[in-house]
Design a protein that fits this description.
- Two copies of one chain form a homodimer.
- Helix content of chain A is 43%, strand content 15%.
- Chain A contains twelve helices and twelve strands.
- The first copy, chain A, has helices spanning 5-12, 16-24, 31-44, 50-57, 77-92, 106-117, 134-141, 165-178, 194-209, 226-237, 251-263, 297-312, and strands at residues 62-67, 96-101, 123-127, 146-149, 160-163, 184-188, 219-221, 245-248, 273-275, 292-294, 321-324, 327-329.
- In chain A, helix 11 links the parallel strand 8 (245-248) and strand 9.
- At the A-B interface, helix 4, helix 5, strand 2, helix 6 and helix 10 of A face helix 4, strand 1, helix 5, strand 2 and helix 6 of B.
- Chain A binds a DNA duplex (16 and 16 nucleotides) through helix 2 and helix 4.
Chain lengths: 338, 338
DNA sequence: GTGAAAGCGCTAACAG
DNA sequence: CTGTTAGCGCTTTCAC
């Protein structure tokens, strides 16, 4: 049975209020009383009842994070890294993280409603923003606090941190062009994802600068998993006039692409180049290692969380809209066109 | 501003009590009143205040999950899969998941204390049990509910679900022996981990059956990351009398081992065999694909969560101790000894 | 069938 | 400096 304020008060023969005040760090408590209370609280292992405190303060010191996952085996390191960033930052500020896993759709929104309506959390972290995002619409409508990892082309203003995917993909595409590649394929992320827009724009910008373009048969779509990268690449390799380089919407699909290519006996980085996006930990250690666009997921997680906490605390944000420049990392999976 | 019971009561001109009872599904409410209340609640978007409800009911409908992570880039898919299992099962029972990321140590225990003491959660999920596990000791001492993923050799009884790592590694080792391997190396998990004990036992059992053993220079330890698998394998390959097969404590280290081997120009599955443990999603798609011991992480996550919810609801567990038989999956990373 | 009142554990305004 | 009192929003006796 947990220790309550009442127990300490009884034990010390003083009132509950005094105990509360002593522990709350109020100045109008006798020095000696405070000492006794603090000692007793420590000895008895007192922790304030969270529900009672929340009910009174109308704050939960909890942040909601709903992972828009698809299936049981969602192995994208992106999630673990964001989670680590959020979790570590939150705990530094004495905040807890309430997490749910809900695939995009009605059940997802229902969780947002439930958490917001029941005041379960003080605010939300949104990730993988979508071009038309029901979460953003709902949360801004009902005036709930949130900060997003990623932008959205919707006509709603909200605070976010994102990376410049256009610039990242532009650089990646330029890299391939400079290596002599002209027939470049792109395995795009799902088109609902906001970042799909920027990444595509970067590719097209670079291609157009060089009088090239993305032919429809080389512009395909995956679902961000290795499997889809593998599948789509197999299809690409079966084309009459197959590409000499493959840009991928994320690293996971790029790794799938590498698998598919290796299976046909071709050498990645020599016969065919592959580029990813994200720079997940494994990218540096795959064989061949992956040329990719680095995105500081963990740090962005921390930053997004910090911004949300500032909003919750009522502080002003210095910057509401942050777009970071990603770093392009050249490794072994790209080489001159043959 | 969220809708409260009071608002509905006012709106309908009836008492708060009646609204509460109507929504609570009590039988002593006029049929018509109930209808009106339900309609109003839906229209007004009512969700009960979680803190108030919890304070009253002395239940939080929340499960605590503290991820014992080490650094920012912890990409082990194990975590995402467990999390998905826990999250999906919990939401099916109307439970929420409170998550924290704390490296093993005092801060980890502090989080357990805080959450248990402040009644923030109804129970805990423990993962990656350790041979001497401070979490288990603390939680069983203070009588908190928990269910673990994995056993522990401590002298404490608690409910768990785990896999038979000994059997799994025995099968894996036998497989190598049957392929003619005699000089087998083992990259072990950290020795604090309870599963390190079982996995090692399985290896030794199989070796001894064949009059072989694990020489100290081939018995090394990693920290479960690809990097460590890579590093240790490099070291193994530099030995005068290097092994013909490498068993790894998990898939991540096995993937690192494959990278290291490929970097020296050797062919995995032909010149050198590699075996992992876990069967993470990527294992089937790596190149070469990984021979490994399959562990149904997602399902175990669900099951552990279900057991905890049963305990919370005061139901009896049919089985307190579950040890599942893992499946051995032969793929391309193993082949005959040369 | 419905309402008034008490209380979950805590904080905060107000006396003394 | 300390104690009494009220109230956060809800559930749950207990009267009517």
């Amino acid at each position: 049975m947990p220790v309550r304020l009442k127990d300490i008060a009884q034990h010390l023969g003083i009132s509950i209020t005094t105990v509360s005040r002593a522990l709350g760090g109020y100045s109008d408590v006798a020095h000696e009383t405070r000492q006794r209370v603090e000692k007793a609280a420590l000895e008895m292992g007192y922790y304030p009842d969270a529900s009672a405190q929340k009910l009174q303060k109308q704050r939960t010191d909890t942040i909601g994070f709903i992972i828009p996952t698809f299936g049981p085996r969602f192995a994208d390191p992106f999630w673990s890294e964001v989670l680590a960033g959020l979790g570590n930052e939150a705990s530094q500020h004495g905040m807890d993280l309430l997490v749910a896993t809900n695939p995009p759709g009605p059940s997802e929104i229902e969780t947002y409603q439930r958490w917001a309506g029941s005041r379960r959390v003080d605010g939300f972290i949104l990730v993988r923003t979508r071009r038309d995002d029901a979460r953003i619409r709902y949360l801004s409508n009902c005036g709930a606090l949130f900060v997003a990892y990623g932008r959205s082309e919707m006509d709603v203003d909200f605070p976010y941190v994102g990376v410049d995917g256009q610039r990242g993909m532009y650089t990646a595409t330029r890299h391939l062009i400079d290596l002599g590649h002209r027939r470049i394929a792109y395995i795009a992320p799902p088109s609902e994802a906001q970042f799909s827009v920027h990444r595509l724009a970067g590719i097209q910008e670079a291609l157009q600068e060089n009088g090239a373009s993305l032919p429809p048969e080389l512009h395909l779509q995956g679902d961000l998993t290795q499997e889809s990268g593998y599948r789509v690449t197999k299809w690409l390799l079966a084309l009459d006039h197959s590409p000499t380089a493959v840009l991928c919407g994320n690293d996971l699909m790029a790794l799938g692409a590498i698998s598919a290519i290796q299976e046909t006996g071709l050498i990645v980085g020599r016969d065919l180049s592959v580029v990813g996006f994200d720079d997940i930990p494994w990218a540096a250690h795959s064989h061949p290692s992956l040329t990719t666009v680095h995105q500081p997921v963990y740090e962005i997680g921390r930053r997004v969380c910090r911004m949300l906490i500032q909003r919750i605390r009522g502080e002003d944000l210095q910057e509401r809209h942050i777009v970071l420049q990603p770093k392009f990392v050249v490794r072994e999976s790209t080489g001159p066109a043959t």
